[in-house]
Design goal:
Structural class: alpha+beta
Distance between the termini: 76 Å
Keywords: Signal
Order of helices and strands: HEHEEEE
Radius of gyration: 32 Å
Protein name: Beta-lactamase-inhibitor-like PepSY-like domain-containing protein
Low-confidence stretches: none
Length: 98
């Protein structure tokens, strides 16, 4: 009977000696987005195709600012009611998803 208790104590003691803690590594991932350089332009400089496309898609929309990059892509700051957002378009009025 002594041997049974002794062997049980050794087995339980050996189980705790194999328990180990794992090291937790916190990895931080940084996402960097590179935006095209847009320069502000006057609203009168917008191509007519863009303003017509905007009127068709969003009749109540008001363009507050317009920007253009080297690729002749346009960024529009638009207000619809109480919502403010950005739209992107090509010179021919085709919408771009960005």
């Amino acid at each position: 009977m002594k041997n049974l208790f002794l062997s049980a104590a050794i087995v339980l003691g050996s189980l705790t000696s194999f328990a180990s803690t794992t090291q937790v590594n916190n990895t931080i991932v940084k996402t960097i987005s590179v935006e095209d350089e847009y320069t502000e332009i006057k609203l009168e400089e917008l191509p007519a195709a863009i303003t017509e496309s905007l009127k068709k898609a969003y009749p109540e929309a008001v363009i507050t600012k317009a920007y253009k990059n080297e690729k002749s892509e346009y960024k529009l700051d638009v207000t619809v009611g109480d919502k403010v957002g950005n739209l992107f378009a090509n010179a021919d009025g085709t919408w771009i998803k960005k």
